[in-house]
Amino acid sequence: MSDNQVLLEIGVEEIPARFLPQALRLLKEVTEEVFRQNFIGFHTVKTYATPRRLSMIAEGVPLMQEDRVREVFGPAKKVAFAPDGTPTKAAIGFANSQGVKPEDLVIKTKGKGEYVVAVVEEKGLPVKDVLPEALKKIILSLHFPKSMRWGTGTLRFVRPVHWILALFGKDVISFEIDGIQSGDVTYGHRFLSPAAVRIEDISAYQSVLENSYVIVDQEKRKELIIKQAEECARSVSGALGYDDELISTVTFLVEYPHAVLGSFSEEYLELPEELLISVMKDHQKFFSVKDSKGNLKNYFIVVSNTKADNSDIVRAGAERVIRARFEDAKFYFREDKQKTLFERLEELRNVTYHDRLGSLYDKTMRVKGIAEVLSDIVCPDKKDKVERAVLLSKTDLITGVVQEFPELQGIMGMYYALHDGEDREVAVALREQYLPAYSGDRVPESDIGAVVSLSDRMDNIASFFSIGLKPTGSEDPFALRRHALAVVAILIEKGYDVSIKQMLEPALSNLSHIPESKDAEPEILRFFEQRLDPLFQSQGYSFDIVQAVISFAAELPLKEVTGRLDALKEFKSHPEYNSFLLAIKRVRNIIPSKELPGLRKELLKADEEIALMEGLESVRDNVNTLLKDSEYSKAIDEAVKLTGPINRFFDNVLVMDKDEAIRDNRLSLLSEIWSAVSKIADFSKLSEEAG
Q: Domains (ranges, CATH) in the chain?
């Protein structure tokens, strides 16, 4: 294998940290695809990113492109050759255009015809001759959530590009993009070592830049940040407040990390912990420090983009900034407590939720209507607390702290409710109403919190579907997909005996003044089914099993749906699985779509149809009882008992009798069999098992 390497570095002005993880993945994918398109072999592609550069190193790149064989279709055989087999002018001209001899043309079938084909062998070119256009294409193929154009150029990129470093081994790969010429020069840290640095050997690329105060490898920067931050925390007998999202962000904010410990007055520890952490993390990108019991200490850690010599200056500046931010938070918190949450309820009338959906007060009343229905099912003994929690649920949105720190919605509601003397379960529900916040997040622990969360999300989905603002393609501005998945997660985790349709009905009845709402139910139920289908498959249920129960997803409590999924998964290994499937599919396939008359027992004459009817009556009663008791596997076992009677019926009875009354009666019998077993699942969707 070749030891040659390709290095590409795009030097830019500071890229937002949130763009860089995706940029790393995209750079790797684009590089590999462009190399394949250009028949450039490689062993691995590694990508790196700092705020000021995107880098790629491809290893194991050969000196020559891969040789390849290309087939080019030409004219039809009957046009290319005369009846005696000699090539016509069309064949000769085509062969010459492809650089082959007419006698080397071959005949191949394409579609319904035969055509002449030139088999062209192409020798690989030197890779160094192909790389200029390949590397240029890589750069131009990188797309970001936001891009910009600068100066008089036409290039659009995430930030202005200042230099391009491109090497193959020790050779410069020369190309130009928008007036920027590639070369063998990069630049060190913007402030600590801003001079140009020449890269003469790709293997020395990272070490040369590290000497210029740039740690190119993001994983190495991340390890340094964690190690240094942990040391800072230990120096004050504390522990680092780990936060993976913050660690990732800080990693892409600096090129040469140095952690500095700062402190703040203990008086600020009287503020809610979440408020302090939010100020530190979301507004300043500082890490918190906790004691052995997990409580906040009056310290923080800032990761600077400079040397240790500047620690005192960094610390002083950070402490000054955090003090000012904490003072703001303290002021808002103190002012907010001057008025209770319940006193703020009427103020929600002045806050527009949506111009077609009214105010936040209107939304609160809609959620209250849904919660009343839901609490009757879930927790009737706590209905008053549910109502109180709903009334207070959005009032913290107009407090000073939440307007300044929106990420604390619900959390601050809980603190204010406790300060107001509200019941603790009500206060906790205010916090839990936004759970789960993302896929995999925990669901509300309390029934009150779960009911508020479900009611709020169902109102969101029903409301925006009713006014036509539903998700389309990749667009979902109101996060309705996330709300639907949250509803599903809560229903499955909590095992509530309530269906999606039961919750949707009061949600839509609240919107009866919107004409479109009356037609929204089928579409919303399909929307939920579309979320559940891949979700169930991701949980290990096969495609056919999911399809067999997905029609129940909206009509039944999800605990019953998952119960059926588990039972069908187990049924796959049943010794009579295939034989039952074949029998019941014969039943399903012969039933006409037209409406049939009711079954008339006096028209059953053959022993096999009488036996089948008697078996049906026994199985149907047992299946209905077992389904009520959630005994899904046992219900399937009952259905399997019909396998023999069904097969004997089809083997010995002519279903399509000449007598219309007898024919319809036999079809009605089969229809009732399907109706009985399909209460468990749609067995026609299941696939036969091999072996």
A: 5-64+126-210 (3.30.70), 68-122 (no CATH), 218-336 (no CATH), 342-470+478-538 (1.10.3210), 572-685 (1.10.730.10)
